[in-house]
Design brief:
Blueprint: H1 16-19, H2 22-45, H3 47-54, H4 65-89, H5 93-118, H6 120-123, H7 131-151, H8 158-161
Helix pairs in contact: 2-3, 2-4, 2-7, 4-5, 5-7
Length: about 160
């Protein structure tokens, strides 16, 4: 007696390749993964510089390396998700939404960590920022706004706005 397992039903994928505006495809599949990969290289390859970029108030010592390596692992996962998973997901906006919502939470935690590292007074006074602070805050905030705009479907064709997570 031969038993066959039923084949799970397949859901048609949502056509995101045409629906996701070029701006989001470029930012979330190319720019964001490249910045995350740069973070990996800096955290592992030049830890004192990475730490100074994030906060000038903490001097690097070898005991911090495990944390920087773990952070680099997180950045590597973020780079992989943006560069590979979004391409594999192709037409499924549900995957895009889930991934970008998760990374948005990470972005917000990074912005909060930056505010704590700089001190709220300095964080709220851009005139007091170092060049590194400008690059860090603007890239984090810019990508967080890009993700939030994506999740809100800003700039999408009208028919894509109704399709949500």
């Amino acid at each position: 007696m031969k038993s066959t397992l039923p084949t799970p039903p397949t859901r048609p994928a949502m056509r995101s390749a045409r629906q996701v505006p070029v701006f989001y495809r470029v930012m979330l599949r190319w720019v964001d993964p490249a910045l995350a990969a740069a973070g990996v290289l800096l955290a592992v390859g030049d830890p004192p510089r990475y730490l100074h970029t994030m906060t000038p108030h903490v001097a690097y010592h070898g005991g911090l390396q495990v944390l920087l390596d773990q952070l680099a692992g997180t950045y590597a996962m973020l780079a992989f998700n943006g560069a590979v998973v979004l391409r594999v997901a192709g037409d499924d906006l549900r995957v895009w939404d889930a991934l970008e919502l998760g990374i948005l939470m990470c972005d917000l935690l990074h912005v909060g960590a930056t505010a704590r590292a700089l001190g709220l007074g300095v964080f709220l006074s851009p005139a007091a920022w170092r060049f590194e602070d400008w690059v860090n805050v603007l890239s984090l905030a810019g990508l967080a706004l890009t993700r939030a705009s994506f999740l809100l479907r800003l700039g999408f064709p009208p028919e894509a706005k109704a399709k949500r997570l």
